Amino acid sequence: MRRSNSCLGCVPRSTAALPVERSFAPPAPMQSWPSSDGGFAKGIIDLGGLEARQVTTFDKVWSTAQGGQDGLGATFFKPSPIPAGFRALGHYAQPNNRPIFGHVLVARDASGAGALLAPPLDYTLVWSSGQDVGAGFFWLPVPPDGYRAVGMAVTTTKDKPRLDEVKCVRAGFTDACEDEESVWSSDKNGFSATALRPAVRGIDARGVHVGTFGAHVQSSTAPTTLACLRNSSAHYMSCMPDLAQLHAVLAAYSPQVYLHPNDAYLPSSVPWYFENGALLYQNGSQTAPTPVVADGSNLPQGGGNDGAYWLDLPVDNGQRERAKKGDLAGAKAYVQAKPMLGGTATDLALWFFYPFNGPARAKVGPLTIPLGMIGEHVGDWEHVTLRVSNFSGDLLRVYLSQHSTGTWVEASQLEYTGSRPVAYASRNGHAFYPKEGLVLQGDSKLGVGIRNDCAKGSMMDTGDGLCEVVSAEYLGAGKVAEPAWLGFERGWGPKEEYDIGREINRAARILPRAMRERLGELVKKLFVGEGPTGPKMKGSWRNDERDPKT
């Protein structure tokens, strides 16, 4: 990050350096990817006549050291330098509690018609932190008819930005966007600045993440609607990695997963589970369950999760207990590769299979209370998703699944071993977290909730030949052979039936009745009580990952 001479908006701050004042440096040298005829990691992506390029260096425009995430404020930047021939579309914003790591897209009209970009007609002042020089002034471009603004501009004076500060984009090359993350907010007029993302995200969606931010003022009725870019190219997946590049990306970024040292229920490969006695049941059948063959080729295909079939552990107690414990030595991560953000990013979802999900434990103040059968179920699928830029091949962020939802973690906020991120699987429940320690689902202020404990026990190194690509539809038919078990759409475990109230009363009988009832409501909210379906039945198979706001 290059610093400008702008002051900090006359906002008091400590003399300690803020995290944002240094750039995030990847912990390993830049990767070199196998060459191909495609456009992966070549710097420019053609959106159908409008070329986009990623800029990751900035000049600081305005900063505040109060409010926002961790109370450290936020900083607003302009992209600089901008490559010759390209034009800025908006400024960039980031919380001060992390090293500078982000990008904005700049654009160039390559259509030959010269009508895809246009300067704004004017700017509207959305909000200012004050009226003196050095305050932050936030400006919304006023686009000409047929164009949309995709970003805002920030100044430190009352003077409007130059009309060529940012460009507006022909409406046909834009798509709807929405707020993703709060960057900073102020009590003055209820102002907030938020990072933006495409409103529709999935394999077939064309919205492109620009990296700009939006601004809102509660006391204003004026709309501040911005758009994102749209990939209008007929070949919008032309910059996705080919198979050799896909394997190179996995070799560079596949995570190292730490399992909890006290977790008795470890992952396994799917064939190991089948070879060790997994059974296929059919609803209403009077015959004995069917052993599943190692490749899953005798599993029924399609049909959705209609309850007609399900899988379960072996009947024999000895075999059952052995299968429940998994086989870490032979475990694999099963990878789905898919286009995201209009083909400008690749998502690599690494799916981990556990034959058994262990029982939950509650925390009530200083007490840890095992919850009996609550949380137990057969068949547990969890995943970690790597989002990689198709402009550069850089790792942008990692999604960590956490029971029925999950969270995105920026690349700058992760632990690493070399170039590879580290993830922690929680004890018994196998939700993923970026750091070791306790994460409480419930009321953290009161110290009441369900425990998710993470610590460095055994380590699963997915980069040691343990990633198996099972789906990459964008490569075309025949490039990646999907295993038969991937098409099994029913439950990977039977529906678990138990009386939650009885289990709570039995496990937590020392607690007051009101506390037991509170725990019961929390359990009902967090645990669905039946074995999960396989990866293809998850909403994220064709769409973006689910986050708490969705």
Structure description:
By secondary structure, the protein is mostly beta strands. 9% of the residues lie in helices and 35% in strands. The chain has five helices and 36 strands. The strands form nine sheets. A six-stranded mixed β-sheet has the order 29-28-27-24-23-36, covered by helices on one side. Strands 16-18-14-15-17 form a five-stranded antiparallel β-sheet, with no helix packed on it. Strands 19, 30, 31, 32 and 35 form a five-stranded mixed β-sheet that branches. A hairpin with a 5-residue loop joins strand 27 (377-389) and strand 28. The longest helix is centred in the last third of the chain and has 14 residues, at 513-526. The protein is globular, with a radius of gyration of 26 Å. 45% of the residues are buried. The model is unreliable at 1-15 (pLDDT under 50).
Short characterization:
This protein is 9% helix and 35% strand. It has 550 residues and is mainly β. It is globular.
- Extended strand count: 36
Helix content: under 10%
Give the low-confidence spans.
Answer: 1-15
Strand composition percent: 25-35%
Instruction: Order the strands across the largest sheet as they lie in space.
Output: 29-28-27-24-23-36
What is the radius of gyration? Answer: 26 Å
